[in-house]
Amino acid sequence: MRKFNIRKVLDGLTAVSSSASASAAAQQQQAGNRESEIQETLQSEHFQLCKTVRHGFPYQPSALAFDPVQKILAIGTQTGALRLFGRPGVECYCQHDSGAAVIQLQFLINEGALVSALADDTLHLWNLRQKRPAILHSLKFNRERITFCHLPFQSKWLYVGTERGNIHIVNVESFTLSGYVIMWNKAIELSSKSHPGPIVHISDNPMDEGKLLIGFESGTVVLWDLKSKKADYRYTHDEAIHSVAWHHEGKQFICSHSDGTLTIWNVKSPTKPFQTITPHGKQLKDGKKPEPCKPILKVEYKTTRAGEPFIILSGGLSYDTVGRRPCLTVMHGKSTAVLEMDYSIVDFLTLCETPYPNDFQEPYAVVVLLEKDLVLIDLAQNGYPIFENPYPLTIHESPVTCCEYFADCPVDLIPALYSVGARQKRQGYSKKEWPISGGNWGLITQSYPEIIITGHADGSIKFWDASAITLQVLYKLKTAKVFEKSRNKDDRPNTDIVDEDPYAIQIISWCPESRMLCIAGVSAHVIIYRFSKQEVTAEVIPMLEVRLLYEINDVETPDGDQVPPLPTPGTGSNPQSIVPQSHPSTSSSSSDGLRDNVPCLKVKNSPLKQSPGYQIELVIQLVWVSGEPPQQITSLAVNSAYGLVVFGNCNGIAMVDYLQKTVLLNLGTIELYGSNDPYRREPRSPRKTRQPSGAGLCDINEGTVVPEDRCKSPTSDVKDNSFSRSRSSSVTSIDKESREAISALHFCETFTRKADTSPSPCLWVGTTLGTVLVIVLNLPPGGEQRLLQPVIVSPSGTILRLKGAILRMAFLDTTGSLVPPAHEPWREHNVPEDKDEKDKLKKRRPVSVSPSSSQEISENQYAVICSEKQAKVISLPSQNCIYKQNITETSFVLRGDIVALSNSICLACFCANGHIMTFSLPSLRPLLDVYYLPLTNMRIARTFCFTNNGQALYLVSPTEIQRLTYSQEICENLQEMLGELFTPVETPEAPNRGFFKGLFGGGAQSLDREELFGESASGKASRSLAQHIPGPGGIEGVKGAASGVVGELARARLALDERGQKLGELEEKTAAMLYSADSFSKHAHEMMLKYKDKKWYQF
């Protein structure tokens, strides 16, 4: 008895102690007194938190770029994110600290670097030569707004156009401004009386780098001579310009306009366009102008050696095509193809064989960035088919409503799911390889299978292979196809409890070993699925309807208003504040016209063909009761060894035998307590409308009380109403406080009562008021008897209490190892069995993978229970609380999981205040407590989950999954596992211009930009115009950049030497960078020789 008192004192100390160390010391002192035989191997040094990878479509994309030599695609977003894609399996996520929208991206082609321009008028240089790209330099413009950037191929000078119409020039090596500026008034001079508007386009003539084409929004285009610092030609048009593109010969360019027209201009004829095209305009008779169309937002002009050029554009549809989907138009010779897209077009790029702008472009594909998708179109095949997208970008095909994560699954699961999923693939894709093929895969250091399951708003469920930090869809299951769909809104039954997405998935319960799957949907429906490789047709869909009724007086809401599925955590759902209700109400008794016994959805009554994969075993629906809609399901569990599924909501709990298709248990939460109810609530009566199952559970200690024997007070309504209104004003309804929802369910084989000498199958039930109740399951023998004899469900009388809603329960054996729930191994059910198989089946016992399966009478177990506020470890069968940890005082736990890590187990928790914590088991010592991210929206709360081996994930945006690890070992190996974006590739040869072109001119003219833009020629830029910010890339970034721009550095050094400039500091930096880049010195030397050779040709 003394020992018990000591424990109480220590528990009290732990509860009030705010510091984790004091708590841990008390815990260890307790552990010294007992349970010393369990060796805990996990220590704080085993834990470290870091993000691993982000999967899915970049949320709210805003910019697109492609490196045609490295074959890497970059996408920027409105939240400042940067996603880089190489070959399938090579992906990378980066984030600009400011969170400002990315307005433009420009690769330094084949240099392993990228420039991003943001809406907050900053430019950033990213080094892509390291596995986690970092910013090397940033430049913040103070007085001007950036609108357009252009970086010519193999140049280190970036042209930056602004809202005021000026162009500044940035050296991308040093990220400093040149003193050379093109002012808008100098560019247009007297050609226009008003300001020409912001810069919308900058590009150099493909055949003459000294000529810069500048497009102003108002419709003016200027060809600027960089050397003479004046305009050669000015082209004016009435309509605003959206984009400009060159013909590769540099004699023509094309503009797209706001009235849906394209104008083609000859460079030397500035007075009027050579040709005006309205791709989607109706040609009117009498030579009148076509009707105006919507703006053409972008145009590209790409040439081919063998045939007509391609003109590719987005927008430009006529205004009378209301409701038409966004289109990409491909004009090739006389043919015009209009390709409809599912979402609006953000940007597109044409992928070409050459990076040189002065050569035939030879386009082979178009990459189209849509608002919610990425599409690649094959230009080389007739009909322009799309490529099959190998990236996992369809997570959001229907909004994700829940997800579960399973690491270390059975090895045969992924092949099985892949084989049934392969049949679901669409046909008609391009036959060619996916063209974005850059980068290299990382080393695979994890060998265990991982599966992510996502549930969606349309009722679909997707299984993903998530092994080794990749993601690939395996199989998709449509749960909605079991229900009748209403054709129009008038047709819809008025039994819906949700306005939209009636099939949305809320909870997924999956047993990987037996492959049994159970889902709970938003319309209070549960579907049980069995996995099969055979196609079957269900003549009749097995179905059960369950009346789950709330058993206590609804004082303030007698009309059955729907309550939220779970009380909002942390809003003071303190059990002590519950006011006992002793008088039931007649407010919801049945009367004419009230909906009764109707489910929310209608199950199809025609035969249902079921493909290989998951096939329906049973559909369970909660029904309306006397005008009250069924409440949404708050917890769910399935057990393949027992053949049972159980689910609960704020009304009560129901258990179903899915083998015999019968309801075993159907009780209000209060009835689970019987006479042990600490709140002294009484069930409502009479209850003649209830299903007569589970009546034996009504009273635990005093034998069965028949529901019909209970009576009610005729004056109860008056008393209850006046009583509830005297309560504190902060509580709007007694209903919300007194409804106790089922929040956790766990099947297991354990000790159910204090006097038990051996473990037996049972169900542990946790509620939102912090109560844990135990129900004993008496199962018939296996084989045929299991289908003939009933399962007997009886109460145990065991009640345990914690502070806050119960979230998770698990069981440990004497050695401290996890005791997983019993399961049945998977077998094919749709194949007839021979006699031997049947005999084996009769003898077979359910598998319980406990390390100590034959438990002696003296051996005990430990129940681990985690609630929103605390965790407890309870010794069984004695039911003594041996360890207790108050996880949080001021916040609440959103997700708690008992997980395996480094051959041991721990409790991992994610709190609403953003903290991720882990605790040892069984002693609940704090091992990790890191502030990770605040709960900014319910999406994170709904999707966060931990799994084995230190893995976790959540939905970081509506379209993306963020994976993270809390394992120090994975953090250490992560660098090796990540793919490499940059791979050394030789830059293609420049186009051969031919002898006569070189001799007599007419070929591409090069320009010594250093001579024009360098400090000696143009002076220093105004200091107040922009400020340089060194990047956080660190030494690794410098090393990467050194090898990246080594060719440019060598050339710059030669040019400076020739002009006798003092190199001083730059020389030292160059030497250091060249030293760190010795692997690329040969490549740099060849580039330098090529450059010298080019110069010789020009004289």
From TrEMBL:
Bias kind Basic and acidic residues: ranges: 707-722, 824-840
V-SNARE coiled-coil homology domain ranges (all copies): 1034-1094
Gene3D superfamilies, A to Z: 1.20.5.110, YVTN repeat-like/Quinoprotein amine dehydrogenase (2.130.10.10)
InterPro entries registered for this protein in UniProt: Lethal2_giant (IPR000664), Lgl_C_dom (IPR013905), LLGL2 (IPR013577), V_SNARE_CC (IPR042855), WD40/YVTN_repeat-like_dom_sf (IPR015943), WD40_repeat_dom_sf (IPR036322), WD40_rpt (IPR001680)
Signal sequence residues: none
Cellular component per GO, a single term: plasma membrane
Keyword Repeat appears in the UniProt entry: yes
Keyword Glycoprotein: no
CDD domains: R-SNARE_STXBP5 (cd15893)
One record GO biological process: Golgi to plasma membrane transport
Family statement drawn from the similarity comment of this UniProt entry: Belongs to the WD repeat L(2)GL family.
PANTHER family, sorted: LETHAL 2 GIANT LARVAE PROTEIN, SYNTAXIN-BINDING PROTEIN 5
Protein name from the UniProt record: Syntaxin-binding protein 5
The organism of origin for this protein: Dromaius novaehollandiae (Emu)
